[in-house]
Amino acid sequence: MKPPHIVIIGNGVSANRASEVLRENDPDVRITLISREFFLFYFRHKLPAFITGSIDEDSLIVHDLHFYMDRNIRLRLGQTVQKIDLENKTLFLSHMEMVHYDKLLICSGGQSHIPEIYYPFRSFFTTLKKLSDARDIRKKLPLINRIVIVGGDLTSLRLADALIRSGREVSFILDDFAFWPIESGPDIRHALETALKKVGATVISGDPLERIERISDGDPPEYAVYTRKGQQLRAQMVGAFFGFKPDVDFLIRSGLDIDRGILVDDRLQTTYPDVFAAGDCAQVYAPHLNNYWVSIGWKNAIMLGEIAAANMSGSEQPVSMPVEQRIRFSDLQLKTPWWHAL
Amino acid sequence: MPNQTDSLIIKICGSAGDGSISAVEILNRACALMGFHIMNFDSYPAEIRGFGKSVGHTRISRSPVLTPGRLADCLVSLNDVHAITELSRITPDAVILYDSKPPDYVEEDHAIAGFIQPGMTGYGIPLRDLSTQAVKSSRSRNIVALGALAAIYNMSLDAFMEAIAIRFSRKAAAVMKNNETALKLGHDFIVQHGERPARIDLQAQHWTRTDISIISGNEAAAQGALDAGLSFYAGYPITPATKIMEYLAKKLPGRNGVVVQTEDEISAIGHVVGAGYAGKRAMTATSGPGFCLMTETLNLAVEAEIGIVVIDCMRGGPSTGLPTKTEQSDLYLAVYGGSGDSPRIVLAPADVTECYTLTRRAFEVAEAFQTPVIILMDFFLSNRFEDLPGSIFESFRSGVFEKIQAIAGDDPYLRFAITDSGISPVAYPGMKGLQHTITGLEHSPNGFPNYDGDNHRRMDAKRQRKIDNIRFAWPSPEEIGSPDRADAGIISWGSSIGAAMEAIRHPDLSGAAIAGFFPRLLYPIQDGALKQFSDRCAELIVVELNSSGQMAGMVEQITSRKVIRLAEVPAEPPAVESIVRQIQGVLK
């Protein structure tokens, strides 16, 4: 009899940890990882350092190919799942290949979030979620001296720091929705402002972005960035950092229950049998809150990957509350108990 | 010129009928026009169309190359199911070009895109859509792919246009125009969408070589026969020799020659022996199974001392075997395959150039030594294309071996006179005063049957003696590498010589003293040179494509020492890397 086939969509923290646990639990099961990105699993938090050239691409890699070969895990990189037929347990890939599964774990992660109010300026924004984004920015960077960052999430703090260290001039427009989907309070905003100023950024707080104009098509282009109170900034790159939203667009017509992310119970099971979700793409039910929460941070992603793998292997393990994360930036330390309320 | 490399290997893989081989033919011509050297080897199924895998494999290089190489830098898939089986023959950083919009979803692991690994670069191109746009059908997917290759490797589109014009010169103008459109669509798609340029840039000085011919081993052999003055060819179609007959059927009548397609191989060689008897330069070409059928009549030519040329394009055997796979396993058949003591001269060219020169020389030898000359080619050599400078054809020096013609005199003419050289002056039917008898029976010097033991001993010795003498007139075997004492001596023959030479020069073996010995005259082998070579080598290693080590056996017989057999039947040309590894193992 053919061993069951477990397919994991994604190649981030949850996906990789889950694949590892699944293999530990069963040496025979077929495991396939499918990722839209054509890169090996990498440390996303190191992307700012890669952009400024402090580290090379090899330093980003978490697991090399041998990790997967040694565990007999099939890697399908650069392959996009277009749609899923949950009834027939079949994935349809964009290069017109069908992949059948017995159990499916969706760890599709997140994608850069741009608040609707800023949609008209999307084409002007530079975002940083993937290694390909980082490569693009790194390529352009030698010609760029002035950068405006709008938002204020964790990635943007690290990027601002790295850019300033590399001699760039960084202006930061702190936004209330920097930690979407929650609104950061005045205390957090003040702490961020102080920390950013300390590393050398020009900070605009309490005066949100109003509009952006492209005033030159050169290489690099030149942008004029206006705030609601009339301040005007010039930049060669405008970064938008409002956190990430679950990457679940490809599942919209699949039949899975989706809110912001994929709705799963506290065993990480979706509304379909044999289909699980973990990591940034999942909204996990918390019985004591009678509500759902979204995972944030590396530790939580690992925990969810482990639990999903255990439950796919036959356990009945509930998810405990998310692990508290800490943001460290300059002298600033933020704890994240307030994320519980998501 | 950025990212130059010396050589690039491209494979185009599809199902039979997808146009993989045609595409590589155009690619070869374009690359040759751009100034590159090429070595191409195709493999295809024995069936006609719609079955099995068809792979065009070509190596493009700035300097002459000896082998087609094994691992491809680029794999073009015209049929994913077949192309997937080629993944073990590409480099870890290969480029894979595939159809991104096949008409239907395929089952798991039937799409090559699913196998692209980190380090590789995948180019998904809507080959079918672009072909339909150009020619209203999917049949020009191969040409679209060529356009994409031109863009990926920064090659001259004009050279491809010229190659297409040559390829379709006999077709309607619309066919050429449609294919040019398909080529441009493939090229433009990459220019517009190619965000991942290939690591290898083949931009070249264009149009630097105007005097080149791109021909296969079969075509070179056929041209060599034509230029030698071939008058008569008879044959029966068989893979991989058929192309020789096809080539001659087009060209020989224009030179007042005759091509006869006979009912079988027995008839073919019968025709050829008859023509040889009449004093005409005559030839047949076949492959192992056909050669088996010819052996009886070949013996007649030995016994009756009739000069003919027989080309055996070897393929995997025994029996029907592997019609479209290469092998060098007919050596014993060529050397020993006959009843009685039936010595014959056996030659083996190493490359396409030598397919021409040795075939041309073979006619002189056959005529001078009045005996069959067998040329051992193989599927790899028959079907591989190389770029040859036009000067090859003009620079050949004929007349190295000349026949001794009988002159009518007062004494009765002895067609098989016993001489010191073993060669008797020859006459042909119709020559006044030189009437004579020939027969397949043992005979006296005058040609009449004679079963006397002493006569038979003298005649056997005469036939062997004349053959043996060629060893002294033939150029010495090619020797390369260490000229003095060697840790290992590599011996190879035929199409395996190129791989053996590359192996000897491989950087991984640079610390060892290695010498190479590469005869073209396989029988009678130049035993004096071989013994001298053997004496200076600590180990003797014979590289060949057969499982028993046929040349190795002959070498052991002559040198009276045990040799190491690198004798394999991989159904493809020998891999340099494999030879290097095995030599390293011997030297440990």
Topology:
The complex is a heterodimer of chains A (342) and B (588).
Chain A: E1 5-9, H1 13-25, E2 30-35, H2 47-51, H3 65-70, E3 73-77, E4 81-85, E5 90-93, E6 98-100, E7 103-106, E8 110-112, E9 125-126, H4 131-140, E10 146-151, H5 154-165, E11 169-174, H6 186-199, E12 202-204, E13 209-216, E14 222-227, E15 232-235, E16 237-241, E17 244-246, E18 262-264, E19 275-277, E20 282-286, E21 291-294, H7 298-312, E22 326-329, E23 332-335
Parallel strand pairs in A: 1-2, 1-7, 2-3, 7-19, 9-16, 10-11, 10-16, 11-12, 18-20
Antiparallel strand pairs in A: 4-5, 5-6, 8-17, 13-14, 14-15, 20-21, 22-23
Chain B: E1 7-15, H1 20-33, E2 37-43, E3 53-61, E4 72-77, H2 80-84, E5 90-99, E6 121-125, H3 127-135, H4 141-152, H5 157-167, H6 173-193, E7 212-216, H7 217-227, E8 232-235, H8 242-251, E9 258-261, H9 265-277, E10 282-286, H10 288-303, E11 308-314, H11 331-336, E12 345-347, H12 352-369, E13 372-378, H13 379-383, E14 385-389, H14 391-395, H15 453-468, H16 470-473, E15 478-481, E16 486-492, H17 497-504, E17 514-518, E18 521-523, H18 527-535, E19 537-544, H19 550-559, E20 564-567, H20 576-587
Parallel strand pairs in B: 1-4, 4-5, 5-6, 8-9, 8-10, 10-11, 11-13, 12-13, 16-17, 16-19, 19-20
Antiparallel strand pairs in B: 1-3, 2-3, 2-14, 7-14, 12-18, 15-17
Give start-end ranges of low-pLDDT stretches of chain B.
none
The backbone outline of chain B, from C-alpha atoms, is globular
Give me the side-by-side strand order of the main sheet of chain B. 6-5-4-1-3-2-14-7
SS class of chain A: alpha/beta
